[in-house]
Amino acid sequence: MDPSYVYEDKTIAILLLAFSIVLLANGIFAIEQFSVQYGVGAGALLESSAYNISVIPILSTITSQIQTTYQMVLESVFMAGIGFIMSLMAFYLLTHKNSRYGSYIRRHVPVHIMLAIVYLSMLVIMRSTAVVRISSLDSYLTYISIFLAIAFDIYLEYGLRKYESSRKLSGNISINPLTPFGNIIQLKNTIFEKLQGEVGIVDKHFNSTALYNLYRLIPTDNPKIKSIKVLTSESMLDSRFGQNYYDFKEEFKNTGINFEVKVMTEADATAQHERFILDDNCSYKIPPFNIINKKSEHITRINTKDSRSRFEYLYQNSVKFENLNSRPKP
Description:
Number of helices: 11
Low-confidence stretches: 1-8, 326-330
Structural class: alpha+beta
Largest sheet: 8 strands, mixed
Mean pLDDT: 80
Number of domains: 2
């Protein structure tokens, strides 16, 4: 499940917002009702003390529990605050779309569930100790909203874990030089079919053979890939590369994928020993693309943030292939 699925179908976020608003409204209503009770009771006590008269029977229950009622006013304020925070979180969930949406769900789910459980606990305590029943505290809608909010939060957590497990490597991928064809299939199934967003490749040995392997690995019908940016070194631009590059670029353009090759400076290419590929969520250390299915090596996950930072630095220092060479005649 893609972490942007909430924005493809906003029902989950909308329902979470609706449930949170119900809890906010319930807290506000409880504040109003308990405040009225407290005001009536406190007024009755003041009047009875001032005129030295007995409190009428209908108010005796309320006046005898002034302190408890005051405590419930404070608890109602706290509940309303929880409902307000939950509403803000759900609103943020609904309105903020970005490629790293999953990181927000990781924070949203435990916090939203914890707040819902605290709200439910306070609701049960207040319901059991209230001197005069408040209709909103006994409302089925309130309890339904709490339980459904928790259920949808759990669904978000389940979906995120399922999505991440589908992208996660089960240990290292081992490349067996004796099975080059099988290696291509393994790499495609475990890594390249799961790429999405902006894909970056840093490989100073990227040449025409690398283009051929990349074509075999990248599914051209993957609508989640928006662009592929390759950083290579000038020494690898063999005589066939220009025509192969433009043919490759044009074919991928027809599938909606923007393809670009940039050439690193000689100093950057010399210093950049590690080869890696990254997308919006993951980063992998890889062998050179021209022998990616033949070299005996382990492909491992590496830190995506560090890889992204390194890629951006190299990308800004690099020169577009088009600026190095004019398009060759067919």
